[in-house]
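Retro notes - structure team

What went well: the batch runner handled both jobs without manual restarts.
What didn't: labels got mixed up in the shared folder, which is why I'm recording both outputs here explicitly, each with its sequence directly above its tokens.

Job 1
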Amino acid sequence: MSYLPIFLNLKDKKIVVIGGGEVAHRKILSLVKFSKEILIVAPQIKPELKNTINKYNLTYLQDGYNKKYILKTDILIVAVDDLQLQETIYKETKDKNIMCNFSDFEEYCDFILPSYIKRDDLVVCVSTMGSAPAFAKEFKSYIQKLIPNDIDYFLKQMKELRSSLPKGKKRMDLLRKKAQNYISNLKN
């Protein structure tokens, strides 16, 4: 599979996660940094997931899968151990306008959730297109150590400068030069 890395605007998107185990929890932890509009449907959930639901004020329905829960869904995450149920859900969603991620069937996935670092406005994603998730996780840790402590402050300055200047080549050149200077000072 070949996935295009994109940044998706989750504003006003309905997200449903089917499953309440460790994999579902891990995927929910990735999502909550970008949206709190998440519905979790599972007959039971792990205590850690319950804590996350409470912490972020997410919605949890204690129930098994029912296709009524995915009506008008924009993004669906299926993280259940029952492979037959995953296949059933895939068949019920493949002709719908729903972006899907299935934990055990890459061929059913419209997208994957990469390993990422989020520090305020900086987001760095690491993916091996599913071929070596363990490497992606370790490489993410390596990259995380390289991010300067003042990156948040620098990005706020850049954002303010960008919004205060008129669009055009002069603005692009000034912002590029400022970024190049910042990065070149990191190397010293």
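Job 2
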Amino acid sequence: MLWSTMVQEAVRSFLRRATGAPGAASFARLDPSTTSELDRSTASELAAAAAASHEALGMEPTQRQLQAAAALMAGYGVEMDTGEGKTLAGALAAASLARSGRRVHVLSANDYLADRDAAWMAPLYRSLGLSVTAIGQHSTADARREAYRADILYAAVAEIGYDVLRDGIALDEGERVRPVLEHAARQGRRSAAKPRARSPAPGGRGSGAPAVSDVDLHARR
């Protein structure tokens, strides 16, 4: 009950900011017509993810992290300062989306960050019954093919894009890794490619690429 109350208050606070309510600084741009749906659909899943974070990682999400996760689930960009917990905020959103039946890709700047964050957040995901893995430039085709079937996949932006492109030009069906692309969240915009919010990933929608939320979870400098 405590986590549910905390999450609901965090989401309500986010909505007030997002819609420009009096006395609230702008946090993100959000169509007011989506606010009631966002409130209903995120509170219970975020509460479960927050409780799992506390139990599995020993990390209690802050209100700012819960607000950021709610915004990411709505498909909007979030900016967080150094030390505010970008990795956990992204994991809360990823876990909540995955629990609703989506396959989620968390896109990082490089292989090191993808491996690190996947391993770091793994106890949270596994406590919720979710599978998580990571791929990098040295991953084999077989490893990639299996990784794309996980609930949550961490990878560098380029790895996902080039897998889509390679599948598009492969002549042998056995060479294709067949990415399962549903929802992508990108961390660290300054060091990665910069598709606009809700723009197609490399290859475009015609190639089966997902809409990519412009998850602006970078540290301001």
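One thing worth noting from job 2: The longest strand covers residues 104-108.
We'll revisit the folder naming next retro.
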